[in-house]
Design brief:
Elements: H1 4-9, E1 17-20, E2 24-28, E3 36-42, H2 58-73, E4 80-83, E5 99-103
Antiparallel strand pairs: 1-2, 2-3, 3-5, 4-5
The structure holds guanosine-5'-monophosphate and zinc ion.
């Protein structure tokens, strides 16, 4: 399958990796929208939140454990935002589920 995040997760395309285990990979976004902006993806191909089900949801909770661990490690003490865009209206451009972690700036004007 021609999926850029499958290739990054498999190490076939280089990325600035922060964390990796048998289930997930975290790497910095190529086009950051804040001083800290990284992505966490499962190694397994899941296209979006729409494809999360009882068979594959364990990796999603694992991703949140990894985010909590990385937030401590990177000292994101003032807070951070986690975003997963799902589908066209949300602006999803890469159809391999991913969680943006954004920090290092005060995100005053809230969308939600
Ligand atoms: P989406 O718009 O689907 O929520 O987010 C996709 C994100 O992936 C974007 O923020 C974009 O900058 C990032 N991205 C796309 N291609 C690459 C790549 O090859 N390497 C890295 N590190 N990030 C990428
Ligand atoms: Zn993929």
């Amino acid at each position: 399958m021609d999926c850029i995040f499958c290739k990054i997760a498999a190490g076939e395309i280089p990325s600035k990796a922060i964390y990796e285990d048998e289930l997930v990979k975290a790497f910095y976004d190529i086009n950051p929208c804040a001083p800290v902006h990284f992505l966490v993806v499962p190694k397994e191909h899941i296209a979006s939140i729409n494809e999360v089900n009882s068979e594959n949801s364990a990796v999603i909770s694992h991703i949140y454990e990894v985010i909590a661990q990385l937030a401590k490690q990177l000292k994101l003490d003032k807070g951070y935002r986690v975003i997963s865009n799902c589908g066209e209206d949300a602006g999803q451009t890469v159809f391999h589920i991913h969680f943006h972690v954004i920090a290092g700036v005060h995100m005053g004007e809230k969308l939600i």
